[in-house]
Design goal:
This protein is an alpha/beta fold and 327 residues long. It folds into two domains: 199 residues, Rossmann fold (3-Layer(aba) Sandwich); 110 residues, Rossmann fold (3-Layer(aba) Sandwich). 39% of the residues lie in helices and 17% in strands. The protein has a six-stranded mixed β-sheet with strand order 1-2-11-7-8-9, sandwiched between helices. The radius of gyration is 19 Å and the shape is globular.
């Protein structure tokens, strides 16, 4: 597949590891984990694959300032803030908090953004709902001061960032060569860019395994609308038709919503860590792995199946003192 210009920022290929102890303990399929938590240390996770394309485009446009947005503990904003300095770029991060004020303490991804020198502005949820127009306004301020901005949407989830996971599916296809057929490629789904790229790549490569997105905060219909919008943008840019087969999106495990976890869910994540040694982001990867375990228990996958679980990173969130635990 022909891809847009990209930088080499991630440590690739990431390993595909067979997790026998986890598979045995959960009594279902053989679970293989695609370790995108190992794309690097400071920039670890799925976002850096997307940023390889966005930052190449930013440099090509002569930009000096990146503008992006996310939650206060955004993995994407953290990866952007830390990928920018070696390239001579500044970052302005618009972060959503409950009241539009800075968090009470700096920790996790938020702390790393501050250390990296990102200029941070805080938005209320209502302001964040208008994030695209807010970022456009900030871009105007940068231009007015003589700078050249490059705006990256939430999660780098657009037709440019999508190519990070189209390329990742080529990487996975090579690793699956010679292995048994996979019953699913399971991952955390939210802003849509990773899901869109996976499903587009699977379609173009003729991969039979369904791409399964476990929604971690929003209804499946909302995530699919984002995927469809990204595909429409990509189709316009490339002249290609979007995939006929979309991803399978499951929203049965959203639970109490984005960034919220029950003690039972955290216990399942801790069990997985004790069986694999992997750190799990309780907002994204951890919640998706909880969903996989529950689907195994419900009989979706059996002992004869093989499943890929795509670890999309976010390990720094495991250190949050203030992660919201309920019940």
């Amino acid at each position: 597949m022909r891809l847009p210009a990209r930088l080499s920022l991630a440590r690739l290929p990431t390993p595909l590891q067979r997790m026998d102890r986890l598979s045995e303990a959960w009594g279902g399929p053989t679970i293989w984990v695609k370790r995108d938590d190992l794309t690097g240390f400071e920039v670890s996770g799925n976002k850096i694959r997307k940023l390889e394309f966005h930052l190449a485009a930013a440099l090509g446009a002569g930009a000096d300032t990146l503008i992006t947005c996310g939650a206060a503990q955004s993995n994407h904003c953290r990866a952007t803030a830390l990928a920018a300095p070696p390239l001579g770029l500044e970052t302005i991060a618009l972060l959503r908090t409950p009241d539009g004020n800075p968090p009470a303490r700096s920790e996790g991804n938020h702390l790393l953004m501050e250390i990296a020198g990102a200029r941070i502005r805080y938005l209320t949820p209502a302001e964040y709902a208008e994030r695209d127009s807010v970022m456009a306004g900030v871009a105007g301020e940068v231009r007015a001061s003589g700078g050249t901005p490059w705006v990256i949407p939430e999660g780098a989830s657009d037709a440019l960032g999508m190519w990070g996971y189209v390329a990742a599916m080529e990487e996975l296809a090579a690793q699956l060569d010679g292995l048994p057929p996979m019953a699913g490629i399971w991952h955390a789904a939210s802003s849509g860019g990773t899901t869109a790229g996976m499903a587009w790549g699977a379609d173009r490569l003729g991969m039979e395994a369904p791409v399964v997105g476990c929604c971690i905060g929003e209804p499946a219909a909302d995530v699919m609308a984002r995927v469809a919008a990204i595909w429409a943008e990509a189709a316009t840019a490339t002249g290609e038709e979007p995939p006929e087969r979309g991803p399978l999106l499951i929203d049965d495990h959203v639970g109490l919503g984005y960034g919220l976890a029950t003690r039972e869910e955290l216990a399942i994540q801790a069990e997985a860590t004790r069986l694999t040694g992997m750190l799990l982001d309780p907002t994204y990867t951890g919640k998706a792995l909880v969903g996989l375990k529950r689907e195994i228990g419900a009989g979706r996958y059996g002992p004869g199946d093989h499943v890929v679980f795509w670890h999309t990173g976010g390990g720094f969130a495991a250190f949050l003192e203030g992660f919201r635990v309920v019940r």
